[in-house]
Amino acid sequence: MLVVTRKRGESIVVGDGIEIQVISLGRNGVRIGVTAPRDVPVHRREVYDLVVAANRGAATSAADSVSALASSLRSRVPAVTVPSEVPDAPLRLA
Would you say the pTM of this structure is higher than 0.90? Predict the structure, then answer.
């Protein structure tokens, strides 16, 4: 972990195009601003953790659904039977 000391108005840069700036300092916390490209998601940690948990739950539920569907399809009896005799030559219409 990189630990830095910054004053109000100062910032740090992470990678290409991501800037974190100290906006204000107070007794209850620090306000920061994050500038990032639109394709880079920026979340507070508590929101990020909720998103990850929801995605894991959805993936587990989807995997269970797919397994149940596959099991159901394997247990079905085919409704269409293939004829045992197939003509060697195609039928011609008169």
Answer: no
